[in-house]
Amino acid sequence: MATPHNTPKHDLDSLRIDDEQRTRSNLGKRLAIIIGGLILLAGISGAIFSFRGRTPEVEIAVAQKTPVGRREALLNASGYVTPRRRATIAAKITGLVTGVFFDEGTQVHEGQVLGTLDDSDARRALDSAKGDRDSTQAAVQDYEVQLRNARITLRRTEQLQQAGVQTQEQLDNARTAVDSLQAKIDLVKTQVTAAEARIQVAQQAVDNCTIRAPFDGIVVSKDAQIGEMVSPISAGGGFTRTGIATIVDMKSNEIEVDVNEAYIARVVPGQAVTAVLDAYPDWEIPSRVRTVIPSADRQKATVKVRISFLKLDPRILPDMGVKVTFLGEEKHPAKSPGDSAAGVLVPERAVREDNGKKIVFLLKENRAERRAVTVGNTVGGDAEIIGGLTPGDAVIVKGPPDIRDGQSVAVRK
Fold it and tell me: Cβ neighbours of residue 117 under 8 Å, at least 6 residues apart?
């Protein structure tokens, strides 16, 4: 019988970690954690010191002297430029467009031909009416010749009847012939007048085929092309145009705004207004209230106000957005040189509040200088400073919210 192999035994004692080795391993881990923390702390501290070392950038504006004779802003509103004279030009009749003599942006004058319609049928009717008139006038000439002959016959008959040669019956017949021809001439002349009227109607139909500008203006829309049908009423299932062009009288441009009815008492006809177009935000346009429409919109609780430009400009276009400021009575400058009532104007963003006081930061030798101010009214986007500033002071408009008095700053390029 074979002798079995000796089975190896696991020596568990050989897997034990020596206490000294365990101590050295734990110490290494701790050192690594401490060193990593120190490196992280040093990075954060460096970033903080670097950030603190940076000079904040600011934007500045120069305080401007308040204009002489300024007005107080009572109310702001927004609206659109609208022309008082704006028309979609249409034909008086339904017809086929045979000519279009304009394009968008074309300057047109009153009576200028804008387009033509097919007038062949109208001209045939006109020629027919003229033919009827001519034939009727020819009949008048024929009757007048007969009338002259009838009068000669009447005179002869009267002479013969007095001589006893002709009878009374023959004289009566001669007189009847003269009266009959005169009546026929009067009738035909009336028919000539009627024919003239029909000619005028036919001529008007021909004229209706020519479309003219009703007033001076600029074409802002071209609504029909050659070959299309136009009609003064909507017809043809949408295939018939109702207009050929839209004309605007640029000289009639004005502003239309809706004012909340709670503030409409501040607006009166003739009131001074400053208008600023959205397209030209730095251009203030002097204007004046033309009228306050005596009707309110119950849904929007507003009243419509129309404002006229004191001087028109080619840059003012219909349907442009516009913001307006209704101004109060004109204020005159102070009489005394020491009186600061005239004040200065700075952007409203430059004014800050600190513990209930209004302050601004001035730029003095690349440092921020805190200055308490007295604020008056606002004029558009500017604040009126009636105390604390002088014209020409450089104020910080945009900068860090935690800016401090005496802090170094740099002007943003």
Answer: 91, 93, 95, 96, 97, 98, 208, 209, 210, 211, 230
Give the residue from 307, 330, 353 where a domain finishes: 330
Domain-ending residue, one of 330, 358, 380:
330
Cα 341 from Cα 390, distance rounded (Å):
12
Domain count, the chain: 4
Where does residue 72 rank: exposed (0-12), middle (13-18), buried (19+ CB within 10 A)? middle
Is the pLDDT at 198 greater than 60? The verdict is yes
Q: What is the CATH number of the domain that holds 227?
A: 2.40.50.100
Q: Does 76 fall in a domain?
A: yes
Please, which residues have CB within 8 angstroms of residue 131's CB and are 6 or more apart in sequence? Answer: none
State yes or no: pLDDT of 49 exceeds 50. Answer: no
The predicted-structure confidence for 147-166, as pLDDT tens digits, reads as follows 888 888 888 888 888 887 77
CA distances from 201 to 98, 195, 196, 213 (A): 22, 10, 9, 22
Mean pLDDT, range 263-276, rounded to an integer: 92
More confident site: 25 or 142: 142
Let me know whether 298 and 350 are in one domain.
no
Full domain range(s) for residue 387: 57-68+334-411
Same domain for 291 and 367, yes or no, is no
Whether the predicted pLDDT of 388 surpasses 60: yes
pLDDT, tens digit, 9 for 90 and up, residues 172-190: 888 898 888 888 888 888 8
For the entire predicted model, the pTM comes to: 0.55
Instruction: Label residue 53 by pLDDT band (50, 70, 90).
Output: low
Q: On the CB side of 188, how many CA atoms lie within 13 Å of its CA?
A: 19
Whether residue 219 is found in the same domain as residue 364: no
* pLDDT of amino acid 118: 92
SS3 of 239-253: CEECCCEEEECHHHE
Q: Is the CB of residue 241 less than 8 Å from the CB of residue 228?
A: yes
> Taking the CB of residue 89, how many other CB atoms lie within 10 A of it?
23
75: which strand partners? 326
- Please give the C-alpha separations between residue 196 and each of 143, 192, 208, 345, 380, in angstroms, as whole numbers: 20, 6, 18, 76, 67
